[in-house]
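Exercise 7. Given the components listed, write out the predicted structure of the assembled complex. Treat all entries as one system.
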Amino acid sequence: MRGKEEKPLLRPGGSQNPPGRLKSWLKLCLGIAVLWFLTYVVGPFVDNLPWIKPAVSFIDDSGINTPAFYYTGVEEVGEAVNSIRNSLEYPPKEQ
Amino acid sequence: MADKTSTPSAGQDYVVIESGKTSLKDLYTKEDWMAIWMGFTILIVGLFIYLSNPPDKMQENFNKYNATMKEEAAKAPFKTIAWQQASDSKNRIRARDQSFGKTIQEFLNAPSKWTANPVEALYRSKAEADALNAPFKEAADKAKAAQEAALAKAKEAEKAAGAAAFKNADLNKKAEAEIAAWLKAKDAASKANAKVGNKPYNRLPYLLGAAIILGLFFGIGKAIMGQSFGRFFIGFFFVFALAVLAYMAEQQSTMSHYGFGFPLWAIIFGLLISNTVGTPKWVMPAVSTEYYIKTGLVLLGAEILFNKILAIGKPGIFIAWICTPITLILTYWFGQHIVKMPSKTLNITISADMSVCGVSAAIATAAACRAKKEELTLAIGLSMVFTAICMVGQPAFAKLVGMDQILAGAWMGSTIDSTGAVAAAGAFYGQKALYVAATVKMIQNILIGVIAFAVAVYWCAKVDCVPGQQVSWWEIWYRFPKFVIGFMLASVIFSIIDGSVSAEYSTAMIDQGVLRGWSRLLREWFFALAFTSIGLETNFREFGQYFKGGKPITLYVFGQAFQLCFTLLIAYIMFFIIFPEVAGKI
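Answer.
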């Protein structure tokens, strides 16, 4: 099957002449270095700040998937909903 | 020599583009419709796989555990050991825990957690797994012994209370306290056990398999729409590899502490390539933001189960479904009239992501109002930064003022953007806080179906019109982003299925089967591919105009500050003045 006509490609990037291309690759390396610095230097430093450390240790111990953004990505939500449903459906008798 | 790379310009700006009039041909040539067919194909396959394979003796076990809880609840004025064990056993019945479910998850799960060496995310030898387990073995054994000792004490206390026919208040109180101590020891033992549960793995063959399957799946869709299958399939592996890297970054232990998820990393890695060496031209056919995002949104629709809004009774509805829309509308109004946001689509995307539930709300709203991809990126970035702050700050504040667990849970659940961060903040404060926070957040998650639909209709009928223009229903239909129909339809169909069976059955087979064991895993890959595509076709310079005057930050801070105060007030009124009996039962 012949493909539909392509949309015009975006502005050609990363200069095609050798010095420009080298500069592009240097920029990429610099970006990777910044990410490395954030992950291996800044992150651990923040983790060890006295007012952050308890929360970080707790997250590690609990194993909660903190980056999950929707309820189906978090195990604890299923557990919470079931437990609340059981509590509301079968509440202990009044004393 | 021909250019082999491309860097982005302002050419392809929109998250969702819908044009012109509708014809029958659109049904197989437009991405909106294709997303619906592809999304529903996945959902039908998932329903077939899971509904035809329920766990052994499922209904029999539900009946048994329900009978135990009923009997125990009638016997004592507290949740007895047998009640807790029955509840726990009932919660463990999940369709995705069967062998076929585990195989599916092996193919579709994200790479594993790692700390210093990224290879750990993809491969772990047996020796490495054993070395990881060894230091925690003794602690796990101790925690298990402590749990057994706590259970023995709890049994003894409950027996003593039972001997007095549960009429002695002091004995009841003691039994309740011992049961709580046992539950705590059980939780500690479970966490300690998880630390010695490291197993060897090799994720690479599964990821390669997933890449081939997803490449074929989307490639066939592209071919049906009249585009080149081959060119898409080849480029797809590059986009998929970047999506894997994004998942790996999310799983890095330090980054995961702050909830920086794959959407952020996918955009960052994409931007890094497209704005330095340029996106290779052979990759461009597979850079299809709209295609992936719309298919993912149709799958997300299935996760919007309307019956779940009753999960915590009336207070939950008031907190999540009254406070949230009020905050959303007020923030949008503030953005238009006070901050004077330069873009309505940016305003509504930030307002929705801040007031509803972060990334998922931002994706759904941005797609519904056709926001620019830079606007979606900005909204997600803001959400992730504020989520990290709130996740640490809100439980600390609650502790400082001695807030009640249920109140704190409702407050955190409704105001922290992402669900994972809500669970972490709630759990940090206490188990009741976790349960309430997670449940309120889930109810709020469901709201995005309504918000996305309302925004799509409002944009077609009002915002995209010349002032004073009357728009016909046909015109609204022409302009309406069609995939939203698939998104809503998936939600309605799954809500009907969910409502037509018992809550237990639905939890085990739909929530813990078709959704968490199938469509959610695929939906997350689709979003990862979409965000990678956004990065690969976005010019970093385009962001500058949106930051002028710090307007997005002002908007977010105002909305969040209002939501924090307003939700706290409403949660207090609901749980402690109007419906105190609900708080009492939890």
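Discussion: Chain A touches chain B through 68 residues (CB under 8 Å). The two ends of chain A are 75 Å apart (CA to CA).
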